[in-house]
Design brief:
Layout lengths: L2 H16 L15 E4 L8 E5 L1 H18 L2 E5 L2 E5 L2 E3 L3 E5 L3 E5 L14 E6 L2 E6 L3 E3 L6 E3 L6 E2 L16 E6 L2 E11 L6 E4 L2 E11 L10 E4 L2 E6 L2 E4 L4 E4 L5 E13 L2 E7 L5 E14 L1 E7 L5 E13 L13 E5 L11 E13 L3 E4 L6 E13 L9 E3 L7 E3 L5 E4 L1 E13 L11 E3 L4 E13 L7
Parallel strand pairs: 1-3, 2-4, 3-6, 4-7, 5-8, 6-9, 7-10, 8-13, 9-14, 10-14, 13-15, 14-16, 15-17, 16-18, 16-19, 17-20, 18-21, 19-21, 21-23, 22-24, 23-25, 24-26, 25-27, 26-28, 27-29, 28-32, 29-33, 32-34, 33-35
Antiparallel strand pairs: 11-12, 30-31
């Protein structure tokens, strides 16, 4: 079937199934899910020629047809499909089959004029949209590396062209902007040049069985960024990337009801991080049954812009953190909870009703709990927590990391838990063990000034030294 004939058939099909019956007694039979292949619209799938137009034709035709059949699948058979930005439409699911790869272009002209729309695949103001199929979307992030550096790669920045400002001027991989009923499942998202999966202002999003991989030395290649969105579920995802893995943010609106479960994470930054963009409220977040390995920081809250955080639960989480390079935020803390103003004129948010339940960690640094004078930490609870501290890298310790903003990197004694500006801390069944530090002994389980920390309850809190490595 020629492309012109196929488009005509789709349009006719769409017109017929959208037609309203003349009486209430007449009903059209329910149609099966429609599928259209990008190859039928002329996609070559050779990884050399751009397939943008055939892909977009298929998406547009599928969306037109989906008004009568619910959801239409745009199918990518095995092959490599080089493309500029693809605009996903309402009622369309991209079905990227196993053996198929959607390859993002690396030229500035491959993306819209507006920086906010720089994605390989993006849906705007759409409903009932998604991506699946077992295949791969690849952003060719390594093509944006100007100089490889084990500390932190130097990346291409299109601000030199005047297209945007700052050093983060490069395209994201997949974005859903102001969408409803989003599903992303059974797909591989790899090598983003910037953020990987970006959920912005969305309602009812499901992300499951997704594998995310980004170069470990590339900055800003976050795994999943959830921004100003409500009712989001993330489950059974694997994230291995250089920057923050799961990162809720609030720029223009609150963020409510986020659940992340059954995930495996490795990152050179924070595995889970709220902020640092935090202008509005975070409330009702649950993180459960998560494994974090070889990360620069485990569970982090960086509240810098005046938004308040409440009712957050971290449960059944295994954490391994280690030092990498000081140029990356983090100092191997398994848990990091902070509020402070980003700059002198910024507001300060608060954090309250925060629970850590059934947490096990092996790390090179202690827990850091730091509120501020205008942004106290209130009602923190630690139940059934096992903390093991030992050093196995050669990076220097004795530093506290307040970045971004605030005080930067500050010299501080090594301690199991550092606390400041807290009102209400409940600790129950917490075991802390440590081994000799290469730069000095761990000899201070709890470090705090009574003038800034009030209402502490310790029940079954134990601390002691590890004498042999076999005790781990």
């Amino acid at each position: 079937m020629t492309r012109q004939l196929l488009i005509a058939v789709v349009i006719l099909f769409s017109t017929l199934i959208q037609a309203k019956p003349s009486t209430s007694q007449i009903q059209l039979p329910q149609s099966p899910t429609l599928s259209l292949s990008v190859t039928d619209f002329g996609a070559a799938g050779d990884g050399v020629r751009y397939d943008t137009k055939p892909i977009q034709f298929a998406v547009d035709a599928c969306s037109a047809a989906s008004a009568g059949c619910g959801v239409c699948h745009v199918v990518f058979p095995p092959g490599t499909y080089l493309t500029a930005t693809v605009f996903l439409k309402s009622g369309v699911v991209l079905e990227i089959q196993r053996g198929a790869k959607v390859l993002g272009g690396t030229r500035l002209e491959d993306y819209p004029k507006e920086e906010r729309r720089w994605y390989v695949v993006v849906a705007e103001d759409a409903t009932e949209v998604g991506i699946t199929g077992g295949g791969e979307i690849n952003g060719q992030g390594l093509e944006f590396v100007q100089r490889f550096d084990e500390r932190k790669n130097v990346m291409v920045s299109w601000n030199r062209t005047g297209a945007c400002l700052g050093d983060e001027c490069r395209p994201r991989l997949v974005g859903f902007l102001r969408c409803r009923n989003v599903r992303v499942w059974n797909v591989n998202l790899t090598q983003p040049a910037y953020w990987c999966l970006h959920i912005v202002g969305c309602e009812n999003t499901s992300i499951r069985d997704v594998s995310i991989y980004g170069d470990f030395n590339t900055p800003n290649n976050d795994g999943i960024d959830i921004e100003d969105s409500n009712n989001t579920v993330i489950t059974r995802c694997t994230i291995d990337t250089g920057d923050d893995a799961i990162c809720p943010k609030t720029y223009t609106a609150p963020l409510y009801n986020l659940t992340a479960t059954d995930c495996w994470i490795r990152t050179k930054s924070s595995a889970i991080k709220l902020g640092s963009a935090s202008w509005f409220e975070f409330k009702g977040l649950v993180f459960d049954n998560i494994t974090i390995v070889d990360s620069h920081r485990g569970l982090g809250l960086q509240i810098r812009d005046g938004g308040n955080v409440s009712d957050i639960t971290f449960a059944n989480i295994n954490i391994s953190t280690r030092y990498y390079d000081p140029s990356w935020w983090g100092r191997a803390e398994p848990i990091y909870v902070t509020t402070c103003p980003r700059h002198r004129n910024a507001k300060t948010g608060t954090i309250s009703n925060l629970q850590f339940i059934n947490i096990t960690s092996i790390s090179e640094n202690g827990i850091f709990l730091s509120g501020s004078r205008g942004g106290l930490l209130r009602n923190l609870k630690f139940f059934n927590v096992n903390l093991t501290y030992r050093r196995w890298t050669n990076y220097s310790g004795g530093l506290v990391d307040y970045r971004p903003g605030c005080q930067g990197l500050v010299k501080h004694s090594i301690a199991g838990i550092i606390m400041e500006h807290i009102e209400g801390l409940e600790v129950e069944n917490v075991n802390m063990r440590w081994s000799e530090d290469r730069s000095g002994p761990w000899d201070n389980p709890l470090d705090f000034r009574p003038s800034t920390v009030n209402n502490i309850s310790l029940l079954n809190f134990h601390s002691g030294q590890l004498y042999t490595v076999t005790d781990l």
